[in-house]
């Protein structure tokens, strides 16, 4: 009897396997996972990373509490996602169903069969996808995984393996091997210093169904403040945001908002706060506005946080803009220093452009009323140029 024809779709060949051979494939995948576990961070490496974990560029502040990380409790809190994520496909689409297994042909010209798994590592690949057409030397075999672990770019083979996972069980096996990397805060602190491991975790979040990747996403959300304080971690968070569900995004943005004063003073953390200001729900903007109150003068003087204050002036409503301007001009002696400050003068210039009458009038009159201000001072030129264009002088 002739062998059944392989499954096809849009003219692309697909590797097909018998249902009973899935167990064989998963057994081989378990062996590969053992090699993956060997990439885990050892105790010595954790101790090495610990001293450098807090070497971050955070500006000082007179209020010690403002620099303290706050850990909100989300248990029992009903999360209401904002409307900005309504177009998120992850929110409306449920987890994909496992692919249906069809009998494989015993003979097929040019078709890669599972009896050749010793040459290909026994992986179940969709050959129609160009990115998965990897050469035999990079196959997901024990030998290939060991070579990948020794290579400088050892994460490449692991990421390819993650992308090649097609069955529910294989995705779970990979996920279970990754979980120890994010299981404890100390592990996460070491993880953010290793770009290879971050790529592997990111590939799992991007490629796996939401219910399988949930444990990884939850760990990322819980530790997002620490992750955002590292450049690798910042890029990792920004890449993972598009693959989170609405509720996960809401929790993530809430974490960042509550810790916004601390993050705003950090060279990479300030960018994630600006992302929340631009894309967050109005509820998150209210949290940030409440946290920033009484800190605007301090934030305006510092390099990284001053950019966050500029973003606030552009994104906040009229009431919040009024509170910012009033706090800046409240003490004229301090305000004089802000106008001539090499960093704060950019915030004053942005406020003049972003605010409308009568808030802009309050700020402009406060600047003009200052005595002994040199309008040709290098840090004042832009401010007085804007005042001139707006007709105040």
From TrEMBL:
It comes from the Eukaryota. Residues 28-391 form the PUM-HD domain. Keywords: Repeat, Translation regulation. SUPFAM superfamilies: ARM repeat (SSF48371). It comes from Oryza punctata (Red rice). Gene3D superfamilies: Leucine-rich Repeat Variant. This is PUM-HD domain-containing protein. GO terms for molecular function: mRNA binding. GO terms for biological process: regulation of translation. GO terms for cellular component: cytoplasm. Transmembrane segments: none annotated.
């Amino acid at each position: 009897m002739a062998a059944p024809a392989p499954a096809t779709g849009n003219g692309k060949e697909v590797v097909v396997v018998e249902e009973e051979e899935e167990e064989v494939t998963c057994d081989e995948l378990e062996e590969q996972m053992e090699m993956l576990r060997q990439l885990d961070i050892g105790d010595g490496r954790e101790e090495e990373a610990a001293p450098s974990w807090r070497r971050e560029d955070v500006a000082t502040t007179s209020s010690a509490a403002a620099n303290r990380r706050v850990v909100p409790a989300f248990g029992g809190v009903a999360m209401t996602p904002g409307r900005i994520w309504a177009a998120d496909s992850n929110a409306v689409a449920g987890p994909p169903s496992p692919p249906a297994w069809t009998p494989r042909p015993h003979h097929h010209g040019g078709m890669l069969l599972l009896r050749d798994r010793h040459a290909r590592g026994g992986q179940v690949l969709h050959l129609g996808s160009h990115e998965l057409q990897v050469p035999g030397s990079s196959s997901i075999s024990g030998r290939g995984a060991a070579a990948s672990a020794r290579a400088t770019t050892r994460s490449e083979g692991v990421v390819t393996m993650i992308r090649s996972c097609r069955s529910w069980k294989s995705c779970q096996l990979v996920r279970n091997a990754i979980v120890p990397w994010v299981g404890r805060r100390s592990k996460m602190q070491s993880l953010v210093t290793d770009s290879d491991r971050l790529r592997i975790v990111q590939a799992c979040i991007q490629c796996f169904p939401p219910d399988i990747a949930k444990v990884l996403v939850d760990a990322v959300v819980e530790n997002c403040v620490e992750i955002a304080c590292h450049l690798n971690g910042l890029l990792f968070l920004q890449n993972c945001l598009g693959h989170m569900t609405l509720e996960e995004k809401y929790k993530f943005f809430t974490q960042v908002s509550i810790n916004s004063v601390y993050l705003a003073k950090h060279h990479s953390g300030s960018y994630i706060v600006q992302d929340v200001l631009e894309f967050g729900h109005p509820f998150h903007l209210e949290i940030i506005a409440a946290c920033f109150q009484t800190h605007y003068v301090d934030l305006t003087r510092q390099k990284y946080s001053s950019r966050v204050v500029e973003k606030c002036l552009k994104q906040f409503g009229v009431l919040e803009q009024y509170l910012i301007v009033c706090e800046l001009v409240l003490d004229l002696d301090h305000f004089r220093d802000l106008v001539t400050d090499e960093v704060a003068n950019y915030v004053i210039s942005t406020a003049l452009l972003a605010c409308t009458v009568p808030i802009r009038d309050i700020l402009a009159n406060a600047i003009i009323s200052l005595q002994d201000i040199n309008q040709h001072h290098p840090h004042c030129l832009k401010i007085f140029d804007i005042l001139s264009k707006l007709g105040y002088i």
